[in-house]
Amino acid sequence: MAMKYGLLGPLTIESEGQQVQIPGPRLRAALTMLLLQNGSPVAVEQFIDGLWGERSPQTARAQIHNIISKLRKALPAEAGEHLKLINGAYQLTLPPDAIDATRFIASVRAARAAVKTGPTSASIAELRTALALWRGEPLSGIEAPFAEPARARLEETRFAAHELLADMELAAGRHHELIPELTALLDRYPAREHLGERLMLALYRSGRRTDALAVARRLRTLLAGEYGLDPGAGFAELEQGILRGDRALLDPEPKPEPVPRRDTKGGRASGAVPSQLPLGTVGFVGRAEELKQLDHGIEALSGEPGVLLVTGPAGSGKTTLALRWARAKQDLFPDGTLFADLRGYDQDSPDSPVRVLERFLLAMGVPGPGIPSDFAAREDLYRSWLADRRVLLLLDNAGDYSQIQSLLPGSPGSLTVVTSRDALGGLVVRTGAITVRLGMLPLDDSVEVLRRSAGATRVADAPEAALALARLCGGLPLALRIAAARLVEQPTLSLKQLADELAADGRLLDGLALSDGESAVARTLDHTYRRLPAELARTFRLMGLHNGPGLGPGAVGALLGETDGASIAAPRLRALEAVHLVARSGSGTVSQDHCAMHDLVRLYALSRTEAEETPQERREALSRLADWYVALGEAGTRLIMPERPLAQFELKWHASDRIPFTDAEQAMAWFDDEAENMLALTRQCATLGQHTAVWQLADVQMIHQMRRHLLDNMLETQKLGEAAATASGSDDAVGKLANSVGIAHSLRREFPEAVAAYERSLAAYLRAGDHFRAAVGQMNLGSLHYDFGQFTEARAHLRQSAEMLRGLGEHRLLGICLGNLGLTYSDQGDMPAARELLEEAVAMAEKAGAGDQIYIIRGDLAEVYLLLGKYAEGVEGTTTALASARFHGDRLHTGRLLRQLGDAESEAGNAAQASTAWEESLQVLAELDSPECEELRDRLAGRRYRPFRKR
């Protein structure tokens, strides 16, 4: 009987029908972490953060190895076999059905997929069976820093499954049976608005109209009293429908038949399948003719790498239309959907094709190190990946043809949808793009926008005024929504009063007559803005300063200068969202409450900022925002790479907000969310000459950019940082940022540029009198030259570094430096010098107590002995290093030292011992999927090989 693991309640393990007890809370917590990451490696640092958080003991690393060892012994033998050490990380790999949480999530996904074709009794029963797996609070009894966030994620998935089940049951017409279940759920989650909607619908379909309205009143009262909020538009529309007895609500809405997915690679899509389409605007109205044109366009482009262009005035709803159509057609493209907002009309930072190509390639599953730095090579890789695939691309807000030329597929099957305010004649001429021109909404559709946004009853009570207001808005969706927002904000303001007010302003009518509609939007925004309370108006103005994709409450609080910024900014953002001046982006993995501005709204906000805030006030606001990002970036970097020394930052402003991450994984997710914001802010501060902010921002972004292999962004920010540090006169900062520039060039394999950057870093550290970092800089230069086979230069730099480290008494680094220098002499054939240096390197490592370093140097020294023909010393040294590598759990060096031992035995004529060592080496390295396995197979097959080959 296969083993079963339970996480949806207290941790349980069942083997052969018997419960297995794991002794000790720490062991149970470690096993839970492994089960949650089933099939993925968990690094020792992750274990430390997950089990202790910020209060980890100095012996944490040793304790982790001890915990895993005890865990292996506590688990049945079959389970222990699935727990392996791979590249220094522990990985537990179990069948998906062995863990109840994994089975539950898979069942929910299957049920969600079944909704597209219409729920069946079988799919409903499967989802109910999945929910029955729950035995109480997930991870009950597990007390560790990682547990609470994991519990919250599982609980949220459970709630989403209940909502999905309700939708499926309602679609199947089982509203009567659903009422008790939904009532109990709403008692448990009383503020869940969408749950209330489902219960209201079930009650209404069961003939209990008054009970449905009672649920609505109860939820309205709760939201207003507890949170100061009104329900959303969907809730209000359902409530209105129930009030008027809408018969359309009595039957489930018919589901369209899904388009079958075409197999593209031997019956299924291969590789990563990106799905990047963001949420569209709710309340989409009309555009039936334009949607038909897009449908006809895709038919006409059959078999070609087609392009559809949606063009029209600013604010006319191009993005909304394109997203609406793309979502309806995405099943035609089984290899995924790609989306990029090119920000072609953002004068400060339009997105460049080279950065978009990097994001697309990452989304397609291309590993970061596999993405070329050369633009042409990157474009070739992108088009090669798209060949023979069917992908839908949506390129939004294109400024000109040059911005999208490199992003267009070169082979049939894929489709690109481009939105732009311009006609893009170059695109049409070169690609034969089919153009769909988006004009203003017809009058009836404009009134429908008002009805859905401002309330059906209000519009029905004043039809003539609604028509007049729709005419004044000129059919521009953004202007219509802003007018409706004013009506919602001022319940006593009638449609006629608002129409009269707008009509009296001749400038508004003039603005609506312009072809691009921008004046109409500006004037309507002005009316909304003037009615904002002072604190909301200032929030709106200062948000316009930042040109990134969207800010969360903490960042907005920093702009405002509020130390407790998040709690103050969050309700202001909700208020601005209610009048459609900002929109929730919903794209973050950590912070789901980022808010962004429409392009035109931001331009308007910026105009108000320039009119009402002094240049000094604007600079100080951006400076506070930079300090906020630097403070959080520093905290995140310390979690991700605690050993990296950070500069002494100069922060003039500090927030008291809680740091929104507690471990390295969460910190990386925060950086993922904020990367574009930080990049945009770095550029802005560089343009404004805010040098300290620039180099500090660059420094805190460096580790995230390196880990995510965002080399284009890394090189840009670190160069800006070095230039800013130079301008600020801080040699310490120049040294640090120039070193980061060198790392970026090294990763891009740009040797001359890397050398030049490292030399600038070294010179800066010497000017600053920082001899320790200067010594490290010399060692970096030596290692770089060694990596590129320039041994003479490598020796010179490594010698200088060694002399400096001797004077500083830095035994550990001196050991590393001497070891590298010894390898350089070895590769040049000077074995006596190599031996002398490596022997001293071992002595330095022993003096520093660097156990994890000693066995690596001992192995290199043993190889030199073997190359000198001293087989007894070589075998003894290799055996000693091998025992130490095994003790430290270093599988890679264990495998390599076993290979070296086999080579030595072979040269000594001991064929049997050599074969045994090689076989064990092959077993270890095969577990790591090492490319060195092929050489070992040659040895075992008796083929020729070069002994003691350098690594």
Notable traits:
globular; mainly alpha; 951 residues; 5-stranded parallel beta sheet; single chain; 5% strand; 43 helices; 3-stranded antiparallel beta sheet
Can you tell me about this structure?
- The protein is mostly helical and 951 residues long.
- The protein is built from 43 helices and 13 strands.
- The chain has a five-stranded parallel beta sheet, with helices on both faces. The chain has a three-stranded antiparallel beta sheet with strand order 1-2-3, with no helix packed on it. It has a three-stranded antiparallel beta sheet with strand order 4-6-5.
- A hairpin with a 2-residue loop joins strand 5 (83-86) and strand 6 (89-92).
- Helix 2 crosses helix 3 (60-74) and helix 26 packs across helix 27.
- The radius of gyration is 32 Å and the shape is globular.
- Mean pLDDT is 82; it is low at 253-270, 509-519 and 587-592.
The CA-CA distance between the termini, in Å, is 45 Å
Major beta-sheet overview: 5 strands, parallel
Strand content: 5-15%
> Which regions have little confidence, pLDDT < 50, spanning 5+ residues?
253-270, 509-519, 587-592
